């Protein structure tokens, strides 16, 4: 039987397409300035905007993804999507939602600027010989892109080449925002027009089809 790709959609969705995004300026790291971290996050968001537009333009069916806009704002409290930074052994990045399910009011992304071995929070002290390394600029951008996908409403994908593959597994693998990610998002954003629409819990396609999708 063909291996299948599953993209979980979560029970979360937005009822708007114009997003205010706030990005905290973090402290400098060894080789990356706080301002540069902020720029990397902006570049990741610009990449999302560009693939969303390409998808909307190439689709014959009208997709709301072309209406999505991101505006970077200076005030955290008015932002729909908020990006902050941290140090951690327990994650590469994570996204939380307010409220936790249903129609999203705002989402909060936290990115770990440094990385070491991922140690799940068991309450045990972190071994003293564990060191944290500054994440490269490429890694930072990749983690922001993944978390931004969550912030828009996507869950995890079971294919390791997909942007939405779980970051705890192979965090440094090259990934792409796939047509599957965009199709599921398009379905989610159509809820604005059709509030009674049910979102399927997962979106499944055969692996062969995934591999034939164009690079985004
Ligand atoms: Zn994730």
Walkthrough of the structure:
By secondary structure, this protein is of the alpha/beta class. It has a single domain, classed as Collagenase (Catalytic Domain). It is 26% helix and 22% strand. It has four helices and eleven strands. The chain has helices at 34-58, 137-152, 179-189, 207-211; strands at 4-8, 12-13, 18-23, 69-73, 81-86, 93-98, 102-103, 106-112, 114-115, 133-134, 202-206. The strands form four sheets. Strands 4-3-5-8-6 form a five-stranded mixed beta sheet, with helices on one face. Helix 1 (34-58) links the parallel strand 3 (18-23) and strand 4 (69-73). The radius of gyration is 17 Å and the shape is globular. The relative contact order is 0.23. The model is unreliable at 211-216 (pLDDT under 50). It binds zinc ion (ZN). Zinc ion is lined by residues 146, 150, 156, 166-167. Zinc ion (ZN) binds at residues 146, 150, 156, 166-167.
Strand line-up of the largest beta sheet: 4-3-5-8-6
How many independent structural domains? 1
Low-confidence runs (pLDDT<50, min 5 residues)?
A: 211-216
Shape: globular
């Amino acid at each position: 039987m063909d291996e299948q790709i599953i993209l979980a959609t979560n029970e979360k969705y937005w009822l708007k397409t114009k997003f205010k995004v706030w990005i905290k300026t973090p402290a400098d790291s060894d080789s990356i300035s706080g301002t540069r971290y902020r720029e990397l996050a902006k570049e990741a968001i610009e990449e999302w905007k560009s693939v969303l537009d390409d998808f909307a333009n190439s689709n014959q069916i009208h997709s709301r993804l072309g209406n999505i806009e991101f505006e970077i704002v200076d005030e955290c409290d008015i932002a729909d999507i908020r990006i902050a930074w941290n140090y951690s052994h327990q994650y590469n990045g994570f996204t939380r939602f307010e409220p936790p399910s249903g129609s999203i009011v705002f989402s909060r992304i936290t990115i770990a600027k440094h990385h070491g071995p991922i140690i799940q929070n068991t309450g045990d002290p972190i071994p003293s010989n564990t060191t944290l390394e500054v994440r490269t600029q490429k890694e930072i951008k990749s983690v922001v892109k993944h978390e931004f996908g969550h912030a828009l409403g996507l869950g995890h994908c079971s294919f390791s080449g997909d942007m939405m593959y779980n970051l705890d597994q192979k965090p440094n693998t090259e990934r792409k925002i796939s047509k599957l990610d965009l199709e599921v998002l398009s379905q989610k954003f159509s809820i604005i027009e059709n509030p009674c629409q049910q979102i399927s819990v997962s979106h499944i396609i055969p692996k062969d089809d995934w591999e034939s999708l164009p690079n985004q």
